[in-house]
Amino acid sequence: MKEKFYAYIQQLQDEICTQIEAVDGTAHFKEDLWKRSEGGGGRSRIIENGGVFEKGGVNISAVHGALPKSMQNYFGVEDADFFACGLSLVLHPKNPMVPTVHANWRYFEMYNKKGEIVDQWFGGGQDLTPYYLFEEDAIHFHSVCKQACDAHNVSFYSTYKERCDTYFWNAHRDEARGIGGLFFDYCKATEKISMQDWYNFVTEVGDHFLEAYLPIVHRRKELSYSDAQRNWQEIRRGRYVEFNLVHDKGTLFGLKTNGRIESILMSLPPHVQWRYDHQPNEGSEEAKLVAVLKEPKNWV
Length: 300
Prior knowledge:
10 helices; 7-stranded antiparallel β-sheet; 9 strands; single chain; two-stranded antiparallel ribbon
């Protein structure tokens, strides 16, 4: 399973990078190959200062070795080895009318000292963070997510949409990071669903990512915007940074397993503002967005 899924994310990384470069029209991804001293490595691809994308990364990694003590405590195990691979991406467009997008698809195995698999699971998802709310974009993104889920189980979309709303919640701000999408984790084999079934589901979601996001980029990338709207984007980006550094489990796992810091923190946008107690004007488009972030909606 691990070889098959790693081959899949390599192919998916190539496809996504090719499509993103085509939409951007100016910038190209810089590839950075790296190795982890404890075992494994990755292939980071970064795009910067493009015609559409100010900064983004589409990264894959496959790491293995002894599970660090801190993570043993987290999982409630002793003397375990692990293997983890996945694709993680974040794209920050320059135009505040185009939303930031994040996605991740991952696979994890844990072994005893005999090298036998004692646990394995899939996880992942995709979510959208707009700075100005276009409801048709939210409906499109969620509709594609639902389509991918419904091909496998009609209960998946509502379940994983709710988990996404719960996970990407900035508790210290009492608001969502964005308008959600899908979030699933610890997808393990049961009597009714096999690891192959989970593989089929996770790859279905991955295969639908570009369909969920690129039409939105095409609709919004040429829209005009003001300096004030750009400032609002940078203020909201600050909330994005806060979530990734305070709450995100993927960031924690990477830091605790001696992951590559540049690849872990590639999710952070290049230009961000923190203004003291900034509040949008009542009735404004900015206030409309915040109202939805305070109380997540059902889009489909």
